[in-house]
């Protein structure tokens, strides 16, 4: 069960790359008479930076191609967007010298319930193939410098009201020479004709302890979105 909250404390976590997806507009418009959720409703359900906390903001760089957040972590690519859906997304972040928080909100809006169920099945298949652990060596390239790390991956069932699905919880621990952690939760939930994919992450530099409020924070953020849709 989720609990909603309109503010989160400022985080300390590691610097991270961000992508900017489609913008949001606020609307309470509901779907058509058949009970389907409209894409306007999903845009309006996404959290805006000011609703989360004063340090949160939308990325300022140019928009990246539509894509989902990575499920399995490590060096694995993000899953492909299942076919047949209209994709809408909004990303926000809270960045600081000692780390960052990021929230990647995205939704797949289908024309019917059966198509949404099929899309959800494809995403669950990807999640089920995630390894339980990742051991990644240091990476040094022209645009990336990341120390070696170990990452654990856990998949749990998740439900809130009419929304059902799963959450992938990852914990990344960097090598002792470069202390730092990254906690990530990717919630994948479906109701009616919509699949929501919400990825929340906390990055911490110079600290090997997991973020104490991580579990409560991702539940508040995801819960706020799903309860707006109903």
From TrEMBL:
Hey, what's the signal peptide range on this chain?
1-21
List UniProt keywords, sorted A-Z: Signal
Signal among keywords: yes
User: Which protein are we looking at?
Assistant: PknH-like extracellular domain-containing protein
| Upper lineage | Bacteria, Bacillati, Actinomycetota, Actinomycetes, Micromonosporales
